[in-house]
Amino acid sequence: MGKQTAGRDTLGAFAPQFAQLNDDVLFGEVWSREEQLSLRDRSLVTVTALVASGMIDTSFQYHLETAKKNGITKTEIGEILTQLAFYAGWPKAWAAFRMAIQVWTEEESGKDPRMEHAQAMMFPMGQPNEEFAPYFTGKSYLFPVSTSQVGIFNVTFEPGCRNNWHIHHAKAGGGQILVCVAGRGFYQEWGKAAVEMRPGDVVNIPAGVKHWHGAAMDSWFSHLAVEVPGEESSNEWLEPVTEEEYGRLR
Ligand code: MN
How far is the CA of 6 from the centre of ligand 1 (A)? Predict the structure, then answer.
């Protein structure tokens, strides 16, 4: 649990001792003893106590949001409040449900990052990219946009996902063109700084150049990969991009 400052923020001037106990003891010492009792269980106890005492106010909303962060699911909060209704009182459960429904439905109404990303691009996300999974860190998806004349594939990377260092070989011609269609990611050539890619950005990769491409740590990323026709073309997959190399990117 992050450092709590709500006590000092709200009551620091009016009641410094209460603020200090709230931030440093209740949250700093009691909530943080995760080894003795998990955050999830602490949330369950706290939500129960607040409903039982009828404290369905902004502090309750905070504790519902915390409960959700601590892993209590929509199904579970439904069960918890239903059970509580019989012991704490029907009207209290009703009031709690009105708040819970807002906390637990927020992300389903279009805030799912994967869905948002899919909706932000005109090409489909396609299927899990299982054929190339051995050469990727993290999960990727593949949709064939064109499979004749020039091969064009929409490749989608989940946040943190990237492919291994690799080389597109060809005796003549060949190489690859990347066109970012959604999200934010990177392209990097061996020995050079990584280049950020946003929708509309294009990268031309000549044959024989060692490189990787993938998502930013905090964003989904999709690019069209255009396979430039070449003589005797092949792909050579090399080592993964290390956490250290990748972790330096912003
Ligand atoms: Mn490539």
Answer: 48
At which residue do the structure tokens 């502090």 appear? Answer: 59
Residue 63 CB contacts under 8 Å (≥ 6 apart), including other chains: 43, 46, 47, 50
Q: What is the whole-number distance in angstroms between the Cα of residue 232 and the centre of ligand 1?
A: 16
Å from CA of 134 to ligand 1 middle: 15
- Cα of 157 vs centre of ligand 1, distance in Å, is 13
Centroid of ligand 1 to alpha carbon of 198 (angstroms): 17
CA–centroid distance, residue 226 to ligand 1 (Å): 9
Q: At 189, is the secondary structure helix, strand, or coil? A: strand
Lookup: tokens for 204: 């031309």
Kindly list the strands in the beta sheet with 127-128, ordered across the sheet, starting from the edge strand earlier in the chain.
Answer: 127-128, 140-146, 152-157, 221-227, 176-183, 202-205
Q: Say whether pLDDT at 108 is over 60.
A: no
Instruction: With cut-offs at 50, 70 and 90, classify the pLDDT of residue 167.
Output: very high
CA dihedral for 232, 234, 236, 241, sign (positive or negative): positive
User: What's the pTM?
Assistant: 0.58
Per-residue DSSP letters for 177-188? Answer: EEEEEEE-EEEE
Count CB atoms within 10 A of the CB of residue 162.
26
In 3D space, the residue among 51, 33, 100 whose CA is nearest the CA of residue 72 turns out to be 100
